[in-house]
Amino acid sequence: MKEPLNLFENIKKVKAPEELYVKIESRVKQQHVSWSLATAVAAVFTCLIISEIYLIQTTSDANKLATLELVLPQNNNLLYNE
User: Fold this and answer.
1) Is 0.70 topped by the overall pTM?
2) CA torsion angle for 18, 20, 21, 27 (degrees, to 10)?
3) Cα dihedral angle (45, 51, 53, 59), rounded to 10 degrees?
4) What average pLDDT does the structure give for the chain?
């Protein structure tokens, strides 16, 4: 286990070029996202969350009814059919 860890002791720091920060900053500024697109994405995401919450609530109500039917089954009067 010590041998692989010894490999990390030989790693030396590398100095980044001076203009690297300026290049990264200019690329970030070029990738501009419009507010209308961000608002549309947020609205769609909000609608999806609301629909998921609604579906979870309605399925939980259906599960409660199914559980109640298991506990209190309906009577079957087929024996009395003449």
Assistant:
1) no
2) 150
3) -150
4) 80
